[in-house]
Amino acid sequence: MASARKNQKGSMSEAGKQKAKQKARSQAIHWEENLRNRNQRDGSKRDGSPREESQRKENPRDRSRVDGEKTEAVLTDARRRIVDLLKREGPVTAAALAASLGLTKVAVRQHLQGLEALGLAEGRPQPAAGRGRPSRAWTLSPSAASLFPDRHGELTVGLLDAMRQALGQKGVDQVLQKRARQQTRHYRSLLPSPKASLLRRVQALAQLRSDEGYLAEVVQEKPGTYLLIEHHCPICEAARSCLGLCETELQVFTKALGPGVVVERCAHLLSGAERCVYRVRKAR
Questions:
Q1: What is the DSSP-derived secondary structure letter of residue 39?
Q2: Is the previous residue joined to 91 through a cis bond, with omega within 30 degrees of 0?
Q3: Domain 152-282 sits in which CATH superfamily?
Q4: CA angle, residues 69, 121, 129, in degrees to nearest 5
Q5: pTM over 0.70
Q6: Which CATH fold would you assign to the domain 50-126+135-147?
Q7: Which tens digits make up the pLDDT trace of 40-71?
């Protein structure tokens, strides 16, 4: 009898635990739904007021875009307004920005510090007008240029078309060859000596290309043979208009890497590949 009573008590206790878990789970779901609804309501009401904007945090994805590409960022509404005003009126103080935007000085300073941390704004000390700390005049950094329209690709294509009309294809080819010789001299001045290992030279070339925006890397295909892989083409729009730009790259790479080196393209972005790939090896 005692054993049966004990088992019944244990089963009731177990049932109570399950009921408590279900209640806690239900409360958690209810809390999450309330929080989600509140965030949606708050988001629809944001108007760039100091308190709301100063408490908004940057999206980690936005920060990675700024850190990786240096010139791109997705900003909160208030920071975007500050950036636009700095572009129009900078250098300008935080106090002047606050007055123009209808925000508090504290909120504006927080936003400016955030922009400075992203490498998008710079503050320079101003001589004090009277007693007190000298103020800082804020301006955009060069990295902020990507936040505004950039039509250099369209300009380049237009110039190539104009050159073709004015000089003919032969004249365009001469210009491209001139550019290729200049680029070769530039690379040679920065690459290791031809006496250095081929791997070291190709890795140095990949770094130069990455600095130019090509996101290049080197992979060993087999002993003595390397693949120079360019994951991005920053001149793709111009290259589509003038294939000679791609053709001269092979010449530049071969001459820059030194005598006895063979470079061949084994994948081409403009031919439908995902990226451009060059096979680099010593001549047999």
A1: H
A2: yes
A3: Trafficking protein particle complex subunit 3 (3.30.1380.20)
A4: 170
A5: no
A6: Arc Repressor Mutant, subunit A (1.10.10)
A7: 444 333 334 333 443 333 333 333 334 434 44
